[in-house]
Write a structure and sequence with these properties.
Layout lengths: L3 H74 L4 H6 L14 H5 L41 H4 L2 E5 L5 E5 L21 H4 L5 H13 L3 H14 L6 H14 L3 H14 L6 H14 L3 H14 L5 H14 L2
Antiparallel strand pairs: 1-2
Helix pairs in contact: 6-7, 7-8, 8-9, 8-10, 9-10, 10-11, 10-12, 11-12
Length: 323
């Protein structure tokens, strides 16, 4: 009996442990099923997110491929100075001083009472401003009174940038019989006197917004200028600054399109080398590093006489792109 008692106690202990263990074992499969279900839901969600990211990646890759093909096609289509030759026929429109007056040719043989006030039948002035209005100037500037350059009525002033301005002079200035124009007195541009939609005024307004870093307003201004004056001599510059307004706001793909347009359509303009540099910088920003390096090399090949600033920018961007 003494030998059996420890054995009985051991068996009872084992049975007690088994009794407690069986309910726990019965609950573990349920918990595992719940956990497995949660993991399956998480895996399905992650799989959906991965598929969406893969789709976006494929779409962006396709867009980048098309853009790179477009860049390579344009470079191959117009090698060397082909773009410059194409842009050469585009000349600046004649200034106001070069355009013949529309009305002076029709009135050349007509009787002008203001030139012969004492002729028979000539009406006498009654004090009305219209009756005393002088005729058009023979030099072809519409709206400029005849002899105004000599008498001080208006002045034709050439700005440093080559633009012609009509400036008001001192009406009390003495007549200069030598025919030389009187000294300038701070005139008013043509845009503010007689032509509110002049190309230069629209360009200057957009460039002013660009200088003040109002890039949204600058974009609208340059777009309006390009739509209103597509053949003006400042179109290459306006296209370049339109691209710069995109670049400054991180819209590198749109910026690259404008810079590419300058380098291909206006290859002979002064902004073409800068546009190629900016094109390479924009391509680098969107991940097209090889195309960016090729663009920097294209600048040196097409414009061997590029300025020191352009060459310095190319060296800097090549190091940044690790060409």
């Amino acid at each position: 009996m003494t030998v059996l008692r420890p054995l009985v106690r051991n068996i009872a202990a084992v049975l007690a442990l088994a009794a407690f263990a069986f309910p726990a074992l019965a609950q573990d499969p349920g918990d595992m099923i719940v956990r497995i279900g949660r993991l399956e839901n998480q895996l399905r969600q992650m799989a959906g997110q991965i598929e969406q990211l893969q789709f976006e990646n494929r779409r962006l890759t396709e867009q980048l491929r098309k853009f790179q093909e477009d860049v390579e096609f344009r470079f191959q289509d117009k090698p060397g100075g082909g773009a410059g030759a194409r842009s050469a026929p585009q000349q600046s429109p004649p200034s106001a001083s070069q355009q013949p007056p529309r009305g002076s040719q029709r009135r050349g043989d007509a009787f002008d009472p203001s030139r012969s006030p004492g002729a028979p039948g000539a009406p006498q002035p009654l004090g009305s401003p219209r009756s005393a209005a002088p005729p058009l100037a023979p030099d072809g500037v519409p709206g400029v009174p005849q002899g105004a350059i000599a008498t001080g009525g208006v002045q034709i002033i050439d700005d440093q940038d080559g633009d012609t301005r009509v400036a008001a002079a001192d009406p009390e200035a003495p007549m200069d019989d030598s025919g030389a124009p009187p000294p300038p007195r701070g005139g008013t541009s043509i845009a503010s006197t007689g032509n509110p939609a002049s190309p230069r005024a629209d360009y200057d307004a957009a460039f002013s917004d660009m200088s003040e870093r109002h890039y949204d307003q600058a974009e609208m201004g340059f777009r309006r200028y390009l739509q209103s004056h597509p053949r003006d001599r400042l179109v290459p510059d306006a296209t370049y600054w339109l691209g710069e307004s995109y670049y400054q706001r991180g819209r590198y793909r749109e910026a690259a399109e404008q810079f590419l347009k300058v380098s291909t359509d206006f290859g002979g303009s002064g902004k073409a080398p800068d546009s190629l540099v900016k094109l390479g910088m924009s391509l680098n920003r969107i991940g097209a590093h090889d195309q960016a390096c090729a663009t920097y090399g294209e600048v040196i090949r097409r414009y061997p006489q590029a300025s020191a600033e352009v060459r310095s920018a190319i060296d800097r961007e090549r190091r940044r792109t690790k060409c």
